[in-house]
């Protein structure tokens, strides 16, 4: 039992490190918090957590084995993810700046045009097409939910994954919707949007580079 507990602690550490590493989800959440406020950022975070639950289910059903047997499926996921990130980057690059009084209200609620539902499904879609997610759930998480593991270990692994994911999303939503973050965004909206778009485009191109 001690070995299982130590393994779950290592999973928790890897999960936290995976969340911290910069990726499409983090850039999206940062921008949503600064531009649209805490409620919209939280909606995006909940969508991301739902996608983590879906990835957990896929891992439990044998994601790693499926990708090994059908490598074209991973290529398809990379293409879909790359194209989606390029489209998302283009929308950020072309996004008009908010009026200064709206961008700098700093009340943590936001007044942008993005709806809660749209933010939720964007968070879901971005994490489902995130290369970090594919790598983490196929190469790391799958080892903890295999049929040879005790049921309590599999349940604990899922709980650790979802709790880590939601905890990180909530922390990011709070941090980047504070008055200081919103005020900084108000002073450099176009620059922040285009930097975020450039990073997302880079992630998309990297995914499509599989054909290179």
Topology record:
Elements: H1 2-20, H2 24-36, H3 38-60, H4 63-69, H5 71-94, H6 100-103, H7 116-128, H8 131-140, H9 151-175, H10 179-187, H11 189-208
Helix pairs in contact: 1-9, 2-3, 2-7, 2-9, 2-11, 3-7, 3-8, 3-9, 4-5, 5-11
In words, what does this structure look like?
With 212 residues, the protein is mainly alpha-helical. It has one domain (26-211). It contains 11 helices and no strands. The protein has helices spanning 2-20, 24-36, 38-60, 63-69, 71-94, 100-103, 116-128, 131-140, 151-175, 179-187, 189-208. It is globular, with a radius of gyration of 18 Å. The chain starts with a helix and ends with a helix.
Main traits of this protein?
212 residues, mainly alpha, 11 helices, 79% helix, 0% strand, globular
Can you tell me the overall shape?
globular
Taking pLDDT < 50 over at least 5 consecutive residues as the criterion, the unreliable ranges are 101-112
Count helical runs: 11
Largest sheet: none
Assembly status: single chain
- The percent range for strand residues is under 5%
Number of domains: 1
Number of strands: 0
Distance from N terminus to C terminus (CA atoms, Å) equals: 46 Å
- Write down the secondary-structure element order: HHHHHHHHHHH
Average pLDDT level: 80
Supply Rg: 18 Å
Considering DSSP H and I runs of 4 or more, what fraction of the residues is helical? over 70%
Sheet/helix structural class: mainly alpha
């Amino acid at each position: 039992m001690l070995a299982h507990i130590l393994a779950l602690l290592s999973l928790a550490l890897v999960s936290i490190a995976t969340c911290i590493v910069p990726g499409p989800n983090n850039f999206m959440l940062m921008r949503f918090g600064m531009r649209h406020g805490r409620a919209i950022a939280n909606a995006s975070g909940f969508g991301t957590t739902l996608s983590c639950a879906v990835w957990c289910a896929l891992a439990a059903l044998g994601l790693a084995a499926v990708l090994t047997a059908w490598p074209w499926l991973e290529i398809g996921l990379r293409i879909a993810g790359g194209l989606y990130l390029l489209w998302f980057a283009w929308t950020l690059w072309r996004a008009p700046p908010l009026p200064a009084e709206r961008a700098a209200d700093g009340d943590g609620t936001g007044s942008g045009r993005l709806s809660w539902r749209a933010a939720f499904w964007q968070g879901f879609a971005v994490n489902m097409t995130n290369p970090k997610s594919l790598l983490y759930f196929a190469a790391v998480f799958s080892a903890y939910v295999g049929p040879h593991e005790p049921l309590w270990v599999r349940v604990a692994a899922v709980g650790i994954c979802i709790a880590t994911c939601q905890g990180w999303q909530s922390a990011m939503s709070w941090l980047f919707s504070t008055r200081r973050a919103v005020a900084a965004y108000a002073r450099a909206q176009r620059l922040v949007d285009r930097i975020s778009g450039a990073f997302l485009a880079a992630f998309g191109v990297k995914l499509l580079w599989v054909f290179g």
